[in-house]
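Appendix B, record 7
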Amino acid sequence: MAVPPEPILVLGAGSWGTALAMVLAHNGQSVWLWGRNPDHVQAMISSRQNTRFLPNHYFPETLQPITHLTPYVSQVKEIIIVVPSHAFREILNKIAPNLLPQARICWATKGLENQSGLLLHQVAEHRLGNRRPLAVLVGPSFAKEVAMGLPTAVTIASQWTQYAQELVNLFHNHYFRPYTSSDIIGVQLGGAIKNIMAIAAGIADGLGLGANTRAALITRGLAEMVRFGTALGGQRETFMGLAGLGDLVLTCTDNQSRNRRFGYALALGNSVQQAQQDIGQVVEGISATYEISRLARQWEIDMPIVEQVNQVLQNNCTPSQAVQALLSREPKPEIL
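C-alpha cells (predicted):
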C-alpha cells in the first residue's frame, strides 16, 4: 500500500500562491492553501477555485484551502510562503512558535523588507536562525499562465543544495521546470529590481515612446541590476539567467505585469494611490523602488533609472520630466 505524501503548506492565497499550490497538487502532493481572509477562503472551499484571482481554474482534489494557520504549521515539514514582502516578517512571526524542528521554508515573494532594506533570507535568518534550510523560488512566471499549464521555467535558489533539489522534485512536471542555484542573494535582487524596471517600461509605453525606448530601458535596466547586484554579493551570471534577464524581459513587455500596468497608469496622469487602487493587488515595485534607491545612494551605486522612478513615485517630477532627466545625462561608454 502506497504511503500518502506528507502535506505541504502554502501560505498566501493570492494568484501566485494559488498557482504554485495547484502545481504541487497536480503533482500528487497533498496541499493546504492558507489565506488571511476567511471569507475568501470559504469562497474557495465552496467553489473549488480562486474566483478572485484565478477564476475558472479549478483545484485538484488534493488541494485544500484552510482558514486556521496554527494547527497546520505543526504538522508539516515543507512550507511555501507567497505573501507580499511587507507581510513576510509578520508571517514568520506567526508560524515560528509552532514550526517542527525539521521544517524547511521556501518563499516565492519578490522584494526587500520595508524600511530595513533586508533581503528576505536575512529576515528569515534573523527570525528563525541560520540552521534551518531556506530557499527562494523566482523567475519569469505569470500566475495565470502557470494555472493554465503553459510551459514555465523558474529558479530555486538555496545554500542548502539537497533542499533545493528536493524542491525541484516537488515542483517539476511536464509544464513547470525549476532550475537550481546557490546564489540566493542574486536571485532575490533580480526579482526585486526587475519590478522597478517594469514600472519604468510601463511609464515609457504610457507616454507612447515606442519599442526603441522599451528596448533601451530593458538593456540599461539590466546594467543597473548587474551593477547593484554584484556590489551586494550576487553573482554576475545570475542576472543573465531566469531570475534576472528572463524575469526582466517578461515583466517589462506584458500587461499581465502589475508593475508595468502601474507605470502605464502613472504616465496617463493617475496618482500613485489611484493606480494602486485600480490594480487591486500589491505592486511590489513601489516599495522596492524606495529601498533600492536608498541603498544605492548609501553604497554610491549609479542607478539612474531606479532614481528617476523614485522621483516620480515621490511626486518630485512628472513621468515626462523623468524621461528627460535620463536623456540629458552626460554621454559615456556603454560598457565600463
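Remarks on this record: Residues 184-206 form the longest helix (23 residues). The chain has 15 helices and ten strands.
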